[in-house]
Amino acid sequence: MSIALAPEVPSPLVLEPTDRAPRLARRFLAERFAEWGIEDDYVGRLVVCELVTNAYRHGEGPIVVRVFRDERDGLPVIEVWEGGEERPVIRPRSCAAVSGRGLQLMAEIVHAWGVRPLNEGGKVVWAKLAAS
To answer: Rounded to two decimals, what is the model's pTM?
Structure first.
């Protein structure tokens, strides 16, 4: 009889909601990508920075970052959890805006992204990176 093992659950990075969080998240992502042999981590670092920055500025409580590969297609997935209920919104394009473009840019460079509520409150914002 063979025993099926559950896929390995990656260890998350737990961050305090401070201005240091995006830098620490970029380093965490770069380390995961290096472990997987992914040399070009630019898009991943950009995406994790945007999601963590939004969690820091607009969310509540600690920020949890997970980076893993989708077992179905092998594409990297970035998840950022935080305790706020407010959903991220892509704002209409405006040449006069001085901020608020990050989520729109992120949405254009990833394979897919979304938001799901957590049972215990808060949400997870996730992004699946495109194949390089």
So the answer is: 0.87
